[in-house]
Amino acid sequence: MNRLLRFDGRVVVVTGAGGGLGKAYALLFAGRGASVVVNDLGGNPHGDGKDARAADKVVEEIRNQGGKAVANYDSVTNGENIIKTALDNFGRVDVLVNNAGILRDRSFAKMTDSDWDLIQQVHLQGAFKTTRAAWEHFRNQKYGRIINTASTAGVLGNFGQANYAAAKAGLIGFSNTLSKEGAKFNIHTNTIVPVAGSRLTEGIIPPDLHAGFRPDLIAPVVAWLCHENCDENGVIIETAAGYAMKYVWERSKGAFLRTKLTEDVEIETVRDKWGEIADMTESERPTNINEAIGKFAEALEKLESGNVPPLVLDHVTKEN
Ligand code: NAI
């Protein structure tokens, strides 16, 4: 049971692998037998500049340890070149980890068009371009593993990160959709929500906590989700510090806002029913669009058959 999980014969592309989390992923995949494309533009944490040394150093480290790796210096916005590097050097692509990222944090009142655009380009468009280039190969070979990198800011929001949170939340929708479109081709797409001490979190995660939040503690979670033995598809996994959890969408049981198909919905009814609408005690967790929208079809059926009990409303009792 404890046999090592390996990636021999697999070709893994890791974007933004010149440092931080991406480097940890690249080293682990290569250490377990994969051929790795180490992509990194080598710019600064705000997305300015470029430097081939970022990717070169990681490739050198992998090769010094006896592993197989090549560098690619394109921005993820030119994702097709990154996938081409995999095909040209290793003849195939099996795993894509969309990890490259930058920050342009600013309170929303001060956010400029370029702060917004650059963040969407690198995170969202970068993942789109790189994944689209890999997708046809994954489909043709009926095998693919994709990781998209979201963040707690994307799930919950965070002060000063409207641009970044929007892009990261966008990646969750992107991932969830690909998980559905790819399922029948054995393409699994999952989302990771990491926390790690890296260049990106300098000044956010205090230096004394960096040891506890080492990027290499996250890499095994990503590697497992990308392994051929892992069936998981369409999940969001939050992980850091040697701990991992799964995120899900949860919604309340809800409440009727009218009792008959012929009635309208009054604002006052919404007000009076608000406690029930927002009450999470009997919550449910839809996992696909049919389940989610099916609830409204059920509600319509009940309205049609007259099976909705009378609404107990404050304004009716008060105003009548
Ligand atoms: P990092 O700054 O150490 O690594 C990101 C790498 O991406 C850098 O080497 C950078 O040169 C590269 N990169 C940036 N723009 C690129 C582009 N256009 N094309 C190719 N490469 C590019 O940062 P870290 O912390 O390792 O972040 C990795 C990912 O994890 C990012 O997507 C980040 O948003 C995400 N993340 C990180 C968290 C953390 O606590 N470190 C928390 C939540 C998400």
Automatic annotation (TrEMBL):
Task: Give the transmembrane region(s).
Answer: none
Q: Which Gene Ontology molecular function entries are recorded, alphabetically? A: 3-hydroxyacyl-CoA dehydratase activity; oxidoreductase activity
Keywords of the record, alphabetical order, are: Fatty acid metabolism, Lipid metabolism, Lyase, Oxidoreductase, Peroxisome
- Covered range of the whole protein: 25 to 344 of 629
Write out the coiled-coil annotation as residue ranges: none
As for subcellular location, the record says:
Peroxisome
What's the name of the protein?
Answer: Peroxisomal multifunctional enzyme type 2
Keyword Lipid metabolism assigned to the entry: answer is yes
Top-down, what is the taxonomic lineage of the species of origin? Eukaryota, Metazoa, Ecdysozoa, Arthropoda, Hexapoda
